[in-house]
Design goal:
Largest sheet: 3 strands, antiparallel
Shape: elongated
CATH class: Alpha Beta
CATH topology: Ribosomal Protein L22, Chain A
Number of domains: 1
Number of helices: 6
Order of helices and strands: HEHHHHEEEEH
Structural class: alpha+beta
Helix content: 40-55%
CATH superfamily: Ribosomal protein L22/L17
Distance between the termini: 30 Å
Length: 134
Protein backbone atom coordinates (compact mmCIF):
# COMPACT_ATOMS: atom_id res chain seq x y z
CA UNK A 1 0.00 0.00 0.00
CA UNK A 2 1.32 3.41 -0.94
CA UNK A 3 2.03 6.15 1.53
CA UNK A 4 -0.84 8.38 0.37
CA UNK A 5 -3.35 5.52 0.43
CA UNK A 6 -2.25 4.52 3.89
CA UNK A 7 -2.55 8.10 5.17
CA UNK A 8 -6.03 8.43 3.64
CA UNK A 9 -7.09 5.10 5.17
CA UNK A 10 -5.84 6.19 8.60
CA UNK A 11 -7.75 9.48 8.29
CA UNK A 12 -10.94 7.58 7.40
CA UNK A 13 -10.47 5.28 10.40
CA UNK A 14 -10.11 8.28 12.72
CA UNK A 15 -13.38 9.75 11.42
CA UNK A 16 -15.13 6.37 11.76
CA UNK A 17 -14.13 6.15 15.44
CA UNK A 18 -16.41 9.06 16.26
CA UNK A 19 -19.30 7.80 14.06
CA UNK A 20 -21.41 4.79 15.06
CA UNK A 21 -24.46 3.32 13.35
CA UNK A 22 -27.29 0.90 14.07
CA UNK A 23 -29.72 -0.74 11.65
CA UNK A 24 -33.19 -2.17 12.09
CA UNK A 25 -34.61 -4.22 9.26
CA UNK A 26 -38.07 -5.38 8.20
CA UNK A 27 -40.16 -3.17 10.46
CA UNK A 28 -43.80 -3.82 9.52
CA UNK A 29 -44.84 -0.18 9.03
CA UNK A 30 -44.83 1.82 5.86
CA UNK A 31 -41.70 3.87 5.14
CA UNK A 32 -43.78 7.03 4.82
CA UNK A 33 -45.03 6.77 8.40
CA UNK A 34 -41.55 6.01 9.69
CA UNK A 35 -40.03 9.00 7.86
CA UNK A 36 -42.43 11.34 9.66
CA UNK A 37 -40.90 10.32 12.98
CA UNK A 38 -37.34 10.09 11.64
CA UNK A 39 -37.53 13.72 10.50
CA UNK A 40 -38.22 14.79 14.09
CA UNK A 41 -34.89 13.51 15.44
CA UNK A 42 -32.52 14.19 12.53
CA UNK A 43 -29.70 16.51 13.65
CA UNK A 44 -30.86 16.59 17.29
CA UNK A 45 -28.78 15.76 20.36
CA UNK A 46 -29.23 12.20 21.61
CA UNK A 47 -30.87 12.96 24.97
CA UNK A 48 -33.32 15.38 23.38
CA UNK A 49 -34.09 12.83 20.61
CA UNK A 50 -34.85 10.17 23.23
CA UNK A 51 -37.31 12.53 24.91
CA UNK A 52 -38.97 13.34 21.59
CA UNK A 53 -39.40 9.66 20.78
CA UNK A 54 -40.57 8.74 24.26
CA UNK A 55 -43.39 11.27 24.28
CA UNK A 56 -44.41 10.92 20.64
CA UNK A 57 -47.83 9.43 19.98
CA UNK A 58 -46.78 7.70 16.75
CA UNK A 59 -46.28 3.95 16.91
CA UNK A 60 -43.15 4.19 14.78
CA UNK A 61 -41.44 6.12 17.58
CA UNK A 62 -41.26 2.94 19.71
CA UNK A 63 -39.05 1.18 17.15
CA UNK A 64 -36.91 4.27 16.57
CA UNK A 65 -36.37 4.70 20.32
CA UNK A 66 -35.10 1.12 20.61
CA UNK A 67 -32.84 1.66 17.61
CA UNK A 68 -31.42 4.88 19.04
CA UNK A 69 -30.69 3.13 22.35
CA UNK A 70 -28.93 0.40 20.38
CA UNK A 71 -26.80 2.98 18.56
CA UNK A 72 -25.85 4.56 21.89
CA UNK A 73 -24.86 1.12 23.22
CA UNK A 74 -22.74 0.59 20.08
CA UNK A 75 -21.00 3.90 20.75
CA UNK A 76 -20.31 2.88 24.35
CA UNK A 77 -18.84 -0.44 23.17
CA UNK A 78 -16.55 1.34 20.71
CA UNK A 79 -15.50 4.05 23.19
CA UNK A 80 -15.13 2.28 26.52
CA UNK A 81 -13.42 5.21 28.21
CA UNK A 82 -15.81 7.82 26.77
CA UNK A 83 -18.62 9.44 28.74
CA UNK A 84 -21.95 10.05 26.98
CA UNK A 85 -22.58 13.42 28.63
CA UNK A 86 -19.15 14.76 27.72
CA UNK A 87 -19.10 13.35 24.18
CA UNK A 88 -21.83 15.59 22.77
CA UNK A 89 -23.56 12.84 20.80
CA UNK A 90 -26.13 13.80 18.19
CA UNK A 91 -28.12 12.03 15.50
CA UNK A 92 -26.16 12.92 12.40
CA UNK A 93 -28.12 10.84 9.88
CA UNK A 94 -31.35 8.86 9.84
CA UNK A 95 -32.61 7.26 6.69
CA UNK A 96 -35.55 5.00 6.02
CA UNK A 97 -35.53 2.65 3.05
CA UNK A 98 -38.37 0.54 1.77
CA UNK A 99 -38.23 -3.14 2.67
CA UNK A 100 -39.98 -6.18 1.31
CA UNK A 101 -43.66 -5.98 0.52
CA UNK A 102 -46.29 -8.58 1.35
CA UNK A 103 -48.82 -8.73 -1.46
CA UNK A 104 -52.32 -9.73 -0.50
CA UNK A 105 -55.64 -9.81 -2.35
CA UNK A 106 -58.86 -8.25 -1.13
CA UNK A 107 -62.18 -9.27 -2.72
CA UNK A 108 -63.95 -6.61 -4.76
CA UNK A 109 -67.41 -6.47 -6.34
CA UNK A 110 -68.34 -8.44 -9.45
CA UNK A 111 -65.66 -11.11 -9.03
CA UNK A 112 -62.76 -8.72 -9.12
CA UNK A 113 -59.87 -8.43 -6.68
CA UNK A 114 -57.83 -5.51 -5.37
CA UNK A 115 -54.20 -5.84 -4.39
CA UNK A 116 -53.16 -4.86 -0.88
CA UNK A 117 -49.48 -4.05 -0.38
CA UNK A 118 -48.32 -4.46 3.22
CA UNK A 119 -45.12 -2.47 3.31
CA UNK A 120 -42.09 -2.76 5.55
CA UNK A 121 -38.96 -0.66 5.94
CA UNK A 122 -35.30 -0.63 6.97
CA UNK A 123 -34.04 2.16 9.25
CA UNK A 124 -30.42 3.22 9.75
CA UNK A 125 -29.34 5.68 12.45
CA UNK A 126 -25.85 7.17 12.47
CA UNK A 127 -24.76 9.08 15.54
CA UNK A 128 -21.64 11.20 15.81
CA UNK A 129 -19.96 13.52 18.22
CA UNK A 130 -20.07 17.30 17.97
CA UNK A 131 -16.33 17.45 18.65
CA UNK A 132 -15.46 15.35 15.58
CA UNK A 133 -17.65 17.35 13.22
CA UNK A 134 -15.87 20.63 14.01
Amino acid sequence: MGVRKKAAAEARKEVQKSVVSAKLRNIPTSPRKMRLVADLIRGVEVDKALNILKFSTKEASINLEKLLLSAIANWQAANKDGNIEDAGLYVSKVFVDGGSMLKRISPAPQGRAHRIRKRSNHVTIIIGTKNASK
